[in-house]
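1st attempt posting a full record on here, be nice pls
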Amino acid sequence: MNISPTKSNLLATKRSLIFAEEGYTLLNRKRNVLIREMMQLIDDAREVQESIETVFKQAYDGLQKANLSIGIEYVEELGFSVSENDDLSFRLRSVMGVEVPSVDEIDENIEPAYGFFRTNSNLDKAYKAFKRALSLIAHLSEIETSVYKLAMEIKKTQRRVHALEKVLIPQYKSLVKFIESYIEETERDDFFRMKMLKQRR
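the predicted structure (as tokens):
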């Protein structure tokens, strides 16, 4: 840093050092909160993935039983009568300035689009399980998107923390030390010259 070693520059550098140290403290806290949030989400994702596996097993078991009891072709025909779910909606929430999605709950109540004729409880169980699976997949996508966004922000924050800790703060400290020693030396020289002048007089 090409700065003149003056008292005004010393004060300015000290202010910059304080600002950099405060920034380091805040960014460090932010990074820790983001890491904690991300680790919690990773644990949640693991649980949701396990639930998805269980629910899909139940759904396919029910579907297999329905295929055996009422016939694959008829089940396929009934499948076309079930409407697609297109009412997925989400909001954004902020975690330390990072906007992450929050998917609204999907209604898991079943309203069969098919009648009771030639159908049975196996088909209903499969339908209900697939509806539950849809809700869990939406929740998992919310978690995975949040983890990705938090990971990107943690990476960015880590770079800033590292730059402050390893580059900027040491530079400011070194500069403060240099200016202080220069001013002290200049003051000693001035004092010595004044003394010499008095002695000559």
